[in-house]
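Morning!

This is the sequence you dropped in the shared folder:
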Amino acid sequence: MENELINTENKPQPESKAKYADMARKFMYLFIIQLLLTVSSVLSIILAVVNLEPMIVIYFGIGAFVITILYAVILFLLGKYDYEFSLAGLFCIFAQLFTLIRLFVPDAAMNILINLIGSVFSILYLLKFANAMSSRFLPVDLTLSDSWESYRKAYIYLISITCACVVLALIPYINILAGIVSIICALTAIGFLFWMLVLLYKSSVSMKAFAAKPDEPNSDNAPVTPIEPIPIVAPENQDI
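The structure's back. Tokens below.
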């Protein structure tokens, strides 16, 4: 009886459908904003390659920062369901802020330093966000929970390989190979943006479907049909 009570206390309480529906809406908002940020990032890379007027790049940077603030606000609102969303929102703001500051710094050495700090915050944001999403989908959709966990692990591998390439770039002869792998990593990082978009859209759809599910009867509260006792008939004494 005592073990039964302990197990009951450790059982997680089911969240209301209103919370799941709210998360589904916010995930769709994140998807839309992330789509805008992805387009902005791709355009920024193109503008940097073609070397257009610097002010155009700055305008894009300011626009991306404003959109990021909106993105972070939604993450803060999701923080009531998982505190890691709030941390992700904070890191996201710092990452975009340093990216914006970098556009106004002409010094090459300072530019590299600021870019490095912004990259650290960007990594922290993605890891926290993916971890929060994976945790939120554990009671909802195990496949999506595993997908977010796979995203997080793959991103760690990507960052580890990129850091290794930076170190190997200092070694003669190996630096050429390291440079090629670095370019591949940069292209893969762009692919991660689109992977995240797919996961965000699937997350919103899955959470919305889960919130719309009809209530299942609770086995603990279901009426119990009493079992009628089987009458036991005593054997008659037989004369031998």
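Headline: The chain has a mean pLDDT of 81.

More detail when I'm at my desk.
O.
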